């Protein structure tokens, strides 16, 4: 304690000077705007990287709940699509039906498609035959020939299933043939992919006399027991006429960004087995 008192007595004038300097600096800082600006600017080279790092860390931990919320919102919107239902005016109803009764008529809305979510755990985009793997399998009700969607468009079709995982044949696959139609012309065609560009595909079988323009939307036709109608595939980005035939060559900018597919939606046709039985009978004739 004696040493401390001796030290203070020896350097008292210096200590008082430092205290007065700090107090004076504080009053100057508070009294005018420019000193605060100058100090903030001088220290920004140190504080800016720290703030950026802390923001990135906080955002990383906040991003998961936000993404989960968006996935659930998209799922709810998909569940409410009108194309999920078969609408008729008869009295046939199932456990999945919603009946609307009015004073003038009675309609039955039979649910045809249901949706669930999954995460992509593996994905290729630069091979000749591209696939995804999702973290849902047979124990989650996933079976082959289920449609798989991204948040912005179609992504592929389930081909192989294990108890906990499933393989999805990506739209970026030469064997992927999607029945589609162009809006607003309402003309049917087939979407296929050619090796090279993971952001584009081609719409085939469109006669050259059809009024098709760059910017027109390409959606699923609904003439399939896999994809519901009206799901976005992409937008016409290029249009040309082939000199060898009477069909247009139409390039599509795909709605799904296959470079950044993390969450997907699995589409289940609730009456697929019934529809397959009828198809088999038609094919046998």
Question: What features would you describe in this structure?
Answer:
With 285 residues, the protein is an alpha+beta fold. α2 packs across α3 (33-79). Among the domains are: 83-111, no CATH class; 178-260, Thrombin, subunit H, CATH 2.40.10.350. The protein has helices at residues 2-10, 12-31, 33-79, 272-284, and strands spanning 85-88, 97-101, 106-111, 113-123, 131-134, 147-149, 154-161, 166-170, 178-183, 187-192, 200-204, 217-220, 232-241, 248-254, 263-269. β9 (178-183) and β10 (187-192) form a beta hairpin. The chain contains 4 helices and 15 strands. The relative contact order is 0.12. The model is unreliable at 89-97 (pLDDT under 50). It is elongated, with a radius of gyration of 31 Å. The strands form 3 sheets. Strands 4-5-8-7-6-15 form a 6-stranded antiparallel barrel. It has a 6-stranded antiparallel barrel with strand order 9-10-11-14-13-12.
Describe this structure in a few short sentences.
The chain has four helices and 15 strands.
Strand order of the largest sheet: 4-5-8-7-6-15
Largest sheet: 6 strands, antiparallel, barrel
Instruction: Write down the Rg.
Output: 31 Å
Number of helices: 4
Kindly report the average pLDDT value.
79
User: What is the CA–CA distance across the termini?
Assistant: 108 Å
Give me the secondary-structure topology:
Blueprint: H1 2-10, H2 12-31, H3 33-79, E1 85-88, E2 97-101, E3 106-111, E4 113-123, E5 131-134, E6 147-149, E7 154-161, E8 166-170, E9 178-183, E10 187-192, E11 200-204, E12 217-220, E13 232-241, E14 248-254, E15 263-269, H4 272-284
Antiparallel strand pairs: 1-3, 2-3, 4-5, 4-15, 5-8, 6-7, 6-15, 7-8, 9-10, 9-12, 10-11, 11-14, 12-13, 13-14
Helix pairs in contact: 2-3
């Amino acid at each position: 304690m004696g040493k401390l008192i001796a030290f203070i007595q020896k350097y008292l004038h210096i200590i008082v000077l430092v205290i007065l300097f700090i107090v004076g600096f504080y009053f100057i800082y508070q009294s005018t705007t420019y000193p605060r600006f100058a100090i903030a600017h001088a220290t920004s080279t140190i504080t800016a990287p720290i703030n950026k790092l802390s923001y990135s860390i906080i955002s990383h931990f906040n991003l998961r709940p936000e993404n989960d919320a968006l996935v659930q919102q998209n799922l709810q919107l998909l569940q409410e699509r009108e194309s999920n239902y078969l609408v008729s005016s008869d009295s046939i109803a199932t456990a999945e039906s919603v009946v609307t009764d009015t004073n003038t008529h009675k309609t039955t809305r039979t649910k045809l498609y249901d949706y669930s979510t999954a995460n992509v755990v593996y994905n290729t985009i630069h091979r000749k035959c591209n696939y995804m793997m999702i973290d849902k399998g047979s124990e989650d009700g996933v079976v082959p020939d289920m449609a798989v969607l991204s948040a912005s468009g179609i992504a592929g079709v389930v081909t192989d299933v294990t108890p906990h995982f499933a393989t999805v044949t990506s739209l970026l696959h030469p064997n992927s043939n999607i029945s589609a139609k162009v809006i607003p012309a309402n003309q049917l065609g087939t979407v296929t992919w050619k090796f090279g560009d993971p952001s584009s595909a081609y719409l085939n079988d469109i006669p050259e006399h059809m009024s098709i323009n760059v910017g027109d939307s390409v959606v699923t036709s609904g003439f399939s027991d896999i994809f519901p109608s009206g799901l976005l595939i992409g937008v016409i980005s290029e249009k040309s006429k082939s000199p060898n035939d009477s069909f247009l060559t139409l390039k599509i900018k795909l709605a799904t960004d296959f470079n950044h597919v993390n969450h997907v939606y699995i589409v289940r046709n609730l009456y697929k087995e019934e529809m397959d039985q009828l198809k088999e009978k038609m094919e046998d004739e």
